[in-house]
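Quick one: structure for this chain?
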Amino acid sequence: MNDIEFIFEIEDEAGSFEVPMSFSASDWFDDDSGDIPIPSYTDIGFSKRQKEIIHDLRNHVGTEHDGGLLSEMQKAADWWVSHNA
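Got it. Here's what it folds into:
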């Protein structure tokens, strides 16, 4: 299986910024452990503060503190299924 790619928009006190992210489709669909895959991203071009925010949200994926990350991952997975079925 391939990676599922999506753009995650993050808002903070300085405004908003977009982060291209991806996660393994097989980790999402074929892993029966119930673990949520942590999405990958390239940290080039982000400030230190932005990297800290991204890292914090990735560590909290699937909790009420993930800033909507899990929801965006679900949308990306749904889109991926509809285009790769």
